[in-house]
């Protein structure tokens, strides 16, 4: 049973956390498989989406901690985004 059933909790917490974890897992697995085809890319996206959904719905203590410390959560989102941008800029 999820902690937050109200629409505000889903909009402010579940969806951003899912997108953050999906993107993070997708990039990590994508970096492992440098030469991949579209079918493998679809599999990576499915894995990342499933894993992110399970993490969002099962980690109650992490959810509660992040919910009450939202500035830390958004700080992590911004840091990961900056890290990805810097990585891609240095790679080119």
TrEMBL record:
<feature type="transmembrane region" description="Helical">
    <location>
        <begin position="72"/>
        <end position="90"/>
    </location>
</feature>
<keyword id="KW-0472">Membrane</keyword>
<feature type="transmembrane region" description="Helical">
    <location>
        <begin position="12"/>
        <end position="33"/>
    </location>
</feature>
<protein>
    <submittedName>
        <fullName>Uncharacterized protein</fullName>
    </submittedName>
</protein>
<keyword id="KW-0812">Transmembrane</keyword>
<keyword id="KW-1133">Transmembrane helix</keyword>
<feature type="transmembrane region" description="Helical">
    <location>
        <begin position="39"/>
        <end position="60"/>
    </location>
</feature>
């Amino acid at each position: 049973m999820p902690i937050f059933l109200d629409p505000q909790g889903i909009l402010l917490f579940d969806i951003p956390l899912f997108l953050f974890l999906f993107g993070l897992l997708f990039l990590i697995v994508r970096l492992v498989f440098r030469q991949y085809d579209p079918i493998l890319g679809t599999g990576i996206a499915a894995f990342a989406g499933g894993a992110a959904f399970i993490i969002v719905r099962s980690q109650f203590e992490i959810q509660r901690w992040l919910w009450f410390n939202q500035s830390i959560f958004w700080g992590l989102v911004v840091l990961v985004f900056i890290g990805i941008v810097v990585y891609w800029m240095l790679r080119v």
